[in-house]
Each structure stands twice: as structure tokens, then as C-alpha cells.
Amino acid sequence: MTSTKKRSMPRRVVGVVGVSVVTGLAAAVMGGSAQAASGDVLLPHPGPDGLVWVQERTGDGGVATGGADGNKPLAVTVACEGGGKVVATVVPGNAVDPRPVSFTVDCPADSPGQATKVIDAGMQGSFSVQIDASTPTIRWALTATQEE
């Protein structure tokens, strides 16, 4: 006798696999260059609440990912350093409100600046975060998280 019971994997395990593949591709497609650490880590790994973590890039760039739970808020944090600013734009792939959400982070020359934008529940599945740096030498990192 065969079972008709559907087996599913935990959401976070599936999201981590998808993010690691998509993040590498998105970083190559959307620009930004990897840079050896010129100082401390700008943003630590987000742990189990993380949907995506970009450890460090310089200049313009971004990331695309999936796995957002539409029933929970999404927090996007960007940290940067190098003099100038970055504008982070979160572009929903599937959302109740499809408008992009932007926020600006000041990037001091000698210490990291950081800002977080919390987006209300309603963003489901895929989204991208685009980073527009005021100079090509600004180093930045980002995380996107949802509480378990």
C-alpha cells in the first residue's frame, strides 16, 4: 500500500539552499565586487531568522532571493563604511503592496553606519534588494530577516 501523505521539508532548510544558489548568481548579475575585509565585519551572520546575508561588497550591487513568509514582517538591514551613502531599495516579487521601499544609510569614512527598514507583513516569496552607492569604494553588507 502506498502512502498519500505529503512530506515537506522545514521552510528554513529550503530557503537556505535556495538563497545560497540565488545569492551567488544575483551577486554576479547585479554587480558589486567582493572585497577582502578592510576592517571588522559590517554585519554578522543573521542566524536562523536570516533569509539572506551579503557579507561584504563594494560599490553598487544587490541580491535577489525568495522564501519570504507573507504573514510576517521583513527586516532589511544595511551597514556601510567609506564616506558617502547608500540607498537600499527593496523590490517585492509578490506582495500585497507591490511598490518598492527605499531607505538611505549614511556611510561614515572611518566607522560603519547602519539602518534597518521593517516592511509590514504581506511580502510573499521572492524579492530583491538593490544597493546604489554614492561612490564605488563604499563597502556594504546586508541582511534580510524574518523571525521564526
Structural topology:
Layout: H1 11-30, E1 50-58, E2 61-68, E3 74-81, E4 85-92, E5 101-106, E6 113-119, E7 125-133, E8 139-145
Antiparallel strand pairs: 1-8, 2-7, 3-6, 3-8, 4-5, 4-7
The helicity comes to 10-25%
Strand and helix order: HEEEEEEEE
Alpha-beta classification? mainly beta
Computed Rg? 16 Å
> What number of structural domains do the residues give?
1
Based on the structure given, which CATH architecture is correct? Sandwich
Terminal-residue CA separation? 36 Å
Q: Residue ranges: pLDDT <50 for 5 or more in a row?
A: 1-37
- The number of strands is 8
Roughly what fraction of the amino acids lie in strands?
Answer: 35-45%
CATH fold group: Jelly Rolls
Q: Mean pLDDT score, rounded? A: 79
* CATH class type: Mainly Beta
Number of helices in the DSSP assignment: 1
Side-by-side strand order of the widest sheet: 1-8-3-6
Shape: globular
